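Format notes (please read before filing issues)

Several people have asked whether sequences and structure tokens are stored in separate files. They are not. Every record keeps both together, in the order shown below: the sequence lines, then the token lines. Line labels are part of the format and must not be stripped during preprocessing.
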Amino acid sequence: MNEEFIIRSAGKKVVLPFFLIAAFFLLVFTIGLFVCSDEFSGHYFQPHLLALVHVLLLGFCTMIIFGALYQLLPVISEKPLFSKKLTIWSCIFLCWGTSLLGYAFWIFDSGAIMQIGGSTILIAVVLHIINVLFSLKGSKSTIAIECIATAHIWLLLTVIAGVLLAFNFQFAFLPQNQLHYLALHAHLGLVGWMLLLIIGVGSKLIPMFMLSGKDHSKIIRFSYYIINAALVSFFADVMFTHSYARAWLYVILICTGLGAFVLMLIRVRKSSLRKKEDEPMKQTFIAILFLLLPAMLAVTLSSPVNIFDDNQLLTLARVYGVALIPGFLVMLILAQTFKTLPFILWLDLKHKRLIQPKFMPRDLYNARMVKVMLWMWNTGIVMLIAGNCINILWMNYVATGILNLAALLYLGNILFMLMNNRILTRK
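Then the structure lines:
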């Protein structure tokens, strides 16, 4: 690890708050999920579920992504982070905005609290994007950078759409009802922001973690173009024709792009010099495999041939949401936390010469604790999906109880790393 990399990196003081706050939001999500376990059998468009989805996607997923990007951007751009002050303010605004929005949805106050919460999140996103764009300015263009930059455009559109929907609750200025725009708002965020960013960052980090030196840029470029073509077409179609009749076509195109990304991962694994995978990397590939379920459900739900009644479609929609968001997305982020955060802490110690050469990033966390946490989360998700499919209430309570324990262990593991970080410096 050379000194230039250490100087360019954001540093743990900038990044750690994002991981800690995200861990608390994850715990809030699982507690809320347990409290409203009996509401899963109803429609997905209801206050408590909307609150929990936004808390998870903004408070946990986006918070972690922001923090990780502030460490990664100086590496891929080969330039220092543009502004650490903007980093701090984006964290503060995202935290407060998510808290206000989650509370507004929970009590379903569609007035000032929801509007202020949405606007505060928009400020956080704008500050973050300014930081990202100026950090990337002048750097050599790569497919990873293109994916990251484009994902932020979709993030901005997603948040703008969300703010408009928040104001539309009170002023009703949009030509169609809230539900009409909900699928558009959700999938711009889930596919355009989350999945496209995962593809870009994953194409850079996973080969590095697996010690695979092969160039996979052509596959990722194909994935990038086909997913963006599908998203642009989907957005234009819904906005101008007010119809989801061709959604199945866009879903197939997006699944094709994701298939290309999965093909890259298979090739990376085959060419890897590191044959023994640690628990975070095992969980990463489990999460990618788990993505098959929401992909198949997306094709089924968007199919023009409908063989299900309304109740069955609602069940499939709920299972799709669980499999994609707390399933695939959170599974992946939980795993990658224990690849990125230990490295950030270790890098800081190494730079300050506070750690012995024999210690590596993996020595900062307890692998058994991480393994238990990851498998508890996986078990809880599978049980939650099963409980939704067969509509057994006690199974939902057991599943959400397990997810609460996993979230506590996740927070505990992060705090353990911080404590271990201090212990190792005294040895």
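For reference, the curators noted about this record: The CA atoms of residues 217 and 373 lie 34 Å apart. The radius of gyration is 21 Å.
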